[in-house]
Design the sequence.
């Protein structure tokens, strides 16, 4: 498969997954956003790094 065929599918899946919580429970999502806004930059960066590493690990396992 070509990258430009897979990339839009991957972006679409991310959008679908990101939309689940606000659709199912808007109040819980709002409170989560407030909590994340109160975190310091270092914690947010660690979470982002962890998320990227898990994503890379999953990509490695799939391919």
Sequence:
């Amino acid at each position: 498969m070509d990258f430009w065929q897979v990339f839009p599918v991957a972006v679409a899946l991310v959008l679908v997954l990101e939309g689940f919580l606000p659709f199912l429970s808007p109040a819980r999502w709002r409170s989560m956003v407030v909590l994340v806004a109160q975190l310091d930059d270092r914690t947010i960066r660690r979470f982002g790094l962890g998320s990227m590493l898990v994503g890379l690990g999953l990509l490695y396992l799939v391919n």
Observations:
- Helices lie at 3-24, 26-38, 41-62.
- The first helix runs from residue 3 to 24.
